[in-house]
Write a structure and sequence with these properties.
The protein has 293 residues and is an alpha+beta fold. It folds into three domains: 93 residues, wza like fold; 77 residues, Roll (Outer membrane lipoprotein wza fold like), CATH 3.10.560.10; 110 residues, Roll (Outer membrane lipoprotein wza fold like), CATH 3.10.560. Strand 1 and strand 2 form a beta hairpin.
Length: 293
């Protein structure tokens, strides 16, 4: 018994091959296969132009870039109907060759570069190709979509459930940018002076938290004379008193820190060494960097 045309069409539309590629977006230079059901003379193997269009045998130039194959098929059907080429066309579009099948991963990962992928993969899976985030990475990464250039922000959470449940898919041709995390510096009389990286999801480093990470202040330190050096929008620095002793006693509220802030805790009066603003800024270039987890 012969299958009806309707059943054949349903089988084609439900093809596993089509379903596998359906979420991939068409881009300039991709080679697409256009089939018009029951009209073999309109079948085409055509490459998408730099302008993102294809020229139909029966129809006008149709923009397909940034569309899934199914969306492109619907756009072609509409063009054929609007142009009075066909009354009720049934179009199938498949991508035979993607011009760009690599994803680019740049920034604070262990092995930045370009990696080949043929199907959509979760962002954490793709980041693993580059060895994952390094210790200086900000957990908020930017994804740029191939073709549309849409930018998406994603937090690589330390919480496993959050990371798995909210992970967007990365498509061939996409790019992932992993910026450097904010760093604040604690210098002077603390247990572990150095720079501290904010890498705990979207958490905020505060004065008391970073002092704790730095090993706190020893009994002979002078936290009442602590100061903070903060960079201004014009690139200059301003030095401000920091009521660290009152914060530690609960008399003053803790305060959030900004990127590149420098906290200086003076040594005891006996050991105190005069340190000016310029010397503190210079010290940050050679400070050890620690990860605040």
């Amino acid at each position: 018994m012969r299958l009806s045309k309707g059943i054949v069409l349903m089988c084609l539309l439900a093809s596993p091959c089509l379903a596998q590629k359906e979420s991939l977006l068409i881009g300039p230079g991709d080679l697409v296969h256009v089939q018009v059901f029951d009209t073999p003379e309109l079948e085409q193997h055509i490459r998408v132009t730099d302008a993102g269009k294809i020229k139909l045998l029966a129809g006008d130039d149709v923009t397909v870039t940034g569309l899934t194959p199914n969306e492109a098929a619907r756009a072609i059907e509409k063009d054929m109907i609007d142009g009075h080429w066909m009354l009720a066309p049934h179009v199938i579009v498949t991508v035979e060759q993607y011009t760009t099948e690599n994803v680019t991963i740049l920034g604070q990962v262990h092995s930045p570069g370009s990696y080949a992928i043929e199907t959509p993969r979760p962002v954490y899976d793709v980041l693993a190709l580059a060895g994952g985030l390094n210790d200086l990475a900000d957990h908020t990464v930017t994804i740029e979509r191939h073709g549309t250039k849409e930018k998406i922000s994603y937090i690589v959470s330390n919480n496993a459930d959050t990371a798995l449940d909210s992970a967007p898919l990365i498509y061939p041709g996409d790019a992932i940018i992993v910026p450097k995390a904010d760093i604040v510096y604690v210098l002077g009389d603390v247990g572990r002076p150095g720079g501290y990286v904010k890498s705990t999801n979207d958490g905020q480093l505060t004065v008391l938290r970073v002092i704790s990470l730095a090993g706190s202040t020893p009994p002979n330190a002078v936290p009442s004379k602590a100061r903070i050096i903060r960079k201004q929008a014009d690139g200059s620095y301003v030095e401000l008193p920091l009521p660290l002793a009152d914060m530690q006693k609960g008399k003053q509220p803790d305060m959030p820190l900004e990127a590149n802030d420098v906290i200086y805790v003076p040594f005891s009066y006996v050991r105190n060494i005069a340190v000016n603003l310029g010397g503190l800024i210079a010290s940050t270039s050679s400070a050890a960097i620690y990860v605040a987890k």
